[in-house]
């Protein structure tokens, strides 16, 4: 008999399961309709520049929330218009509520997929939560356009590009990271329409078509920097000769992590392990479309 | 005797003078410390995509306010966190309060520098006010770094680039327009610091140095698409061989107008004449730094 595994169904359940180390794997597909978030934790003197980097580049770096105060790991300040601070993730412990973490010191990886960052967290740290594309993938599936990597049980391919971010203070020279999903050329406008309202989680694609590969400066579409290589449904390499299928590129939550690494910040920088997100209490439908801030 | 001309000293004075046609020229240098705004007026069916274009590209397209309702020319909805709707521009008449206007029909220029748009405004129009770089120029001058074009009584040079905007709905294929100011290489970090807080008016530069000219895809630095050609203080052409002086590029408020023109929208599109801005009631110091929306 196959044991029945109770997957976390809500943001609160996902955080408690991660805190208790009863859930330690990728959060892809769990707690459906609850927003998932990328985590970046920085020494406080870099917080102002990083906040500005996100606000100047909201498509790859959609800022959801940050520590309520310097050193604070259990209260958040919301950056989502209309969503109060306390509504983001009640009772959160930023140091323990992602299933797995990464630890960097002076720009070098020190710990890989560790269970928590209780020891590394200091009174000088500030945490930032950034939107994640898992949300609009649910919407694509619901619209009859499931991303191929999900259908095949693979990870989404992600690529470095040469498209520059708008710099902010210490964060200069950074470029977009993009995620890629293959669609029929005739489906692209529907794919754009379906993902457009997801403004807090990258929104509509930034580029599409084979010509975009060159324009973005992606060296080899078959060799993504993160995630799994894209394949046809028959398990073969993609071919540009298949003119009907085209790559579609979205801003990716790995972008701010790359910007932080590129800035070679001194001191201890912390983050979630890719794919192992912090799940929050906010539902997808609460952050559709841009809300007026007043 | 030279007649004493009373230049408008506040946003309200500037709007009334423009409305009465007693002020009909460029608003550069008037109503010091009051924010000036680019104006774009679109048929309502394009408003949602245009709003999203601005929110996805806040550096070249910083959204300050929009019509309170479709067809409304005398009330605004604020997009500035913490600034109430009624505080943007009390008693505004969007159709008459810029010194000069432009009228486009089906993507073609129909009227150049006309006095108002009372006839052209319809019940289906929506107006958008976008931040302008005049604000941070005051700050640069106050910091002892006056832009050279201002010192020489010339207009700032502006260039088309190949740097893509994040697309939004009908607005695809658009690229950044940038403004350029020359500075010593040793001054660039101070220039970045001085302009960084001006988040509602393009903020810090997006690129700098001679290498940026090529990276942005600017064809000829001596031939800007808008404004006056950049010159040395001796009135000569710039030279890349002068390694000490470098071009510094900012996102430019002409960007959203270019995006609208590129989209070839059907119907009547209205805007201010370049340089002839709508001056509002908000002071520069009220919009320094990004404010949390909640």
From TrEMBL, chains A, B:
InterPro entries: D-Glu_cyclase, Putative_hydro-lyase. It comes from the Eukaryota. Keywords: Lyase. SUPFAM superfamilies: PSTPO5379-like. This is DUF1445 domain-containing protein. GO terms for biological process: glutamate metabolic process. PANTHER family: D-GLUTAMATE CYCLASE, MITOCHONDRIAL. Belongs to the D-glutamate cyclase family. GO terms for molecular function: D-glutamate cyclase activity. Transmembrane segments: none annotated. The keyword Transmembrane helix does not apply.
């Amino acid at each position: 008999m196959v044991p029945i595994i109770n997957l976390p169904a809500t943001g609160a359940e996902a955080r408690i399961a991660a805190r208790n180390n009863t859930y330690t794997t990728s959060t892809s597909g769990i707690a459906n309709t609850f927003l998932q978030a990328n985590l970046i934790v920085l020494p406080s003197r870099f917080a102002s520049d990083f906040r500005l980097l996100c606000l100047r580049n909201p498509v790859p770096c959609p800022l959801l929330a940050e520590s309520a105060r310097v050193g604070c790991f259990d209260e958040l300040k919301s950056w989502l218009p209309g969503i109060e601070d306390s509504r983001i993730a009640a009772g959160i412990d930023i140091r323990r509520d992602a299933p797995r973490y990464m630890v960097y010191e002076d720009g070098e990886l020190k710990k890989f997929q560790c269970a928590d960052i209780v020891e590394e967290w200091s009174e000088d740290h500030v945490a930032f939560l950034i939107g994640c594309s898992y949300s609009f993938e649910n919407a694509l599936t619901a619209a009859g356009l499931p991303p191929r990597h999900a259908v095949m049980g693979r990870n989404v391919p992600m690529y470095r590009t040469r498209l520059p971010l708008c710099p902010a203070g210490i964060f200069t020279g950074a470029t977009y990271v993009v995620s890629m999903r293959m669609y029929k050329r005739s489906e692209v406008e529907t794919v754009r329409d379906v993902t457009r309202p997801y403004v807090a989680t990258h929104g509509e694609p930034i580029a599409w078509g084979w010509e975009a590969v060159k324009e973005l400066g992606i060296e080899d579409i078959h060799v993504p920097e993160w995630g799994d290589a894209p394949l046809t449904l028959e398990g073969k390499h993609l071919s540009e000769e298949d003119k009907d299928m085209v790559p579609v590129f979205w801003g990716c939550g790995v972008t701010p992590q790359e910007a932080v690494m590129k800035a070679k910040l001194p001191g201890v920088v912390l983050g979630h392990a890719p794919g192992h997100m912090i799940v929050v209490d906010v539902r997808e439908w609460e952050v559709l479309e841009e809300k007026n801030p007043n």
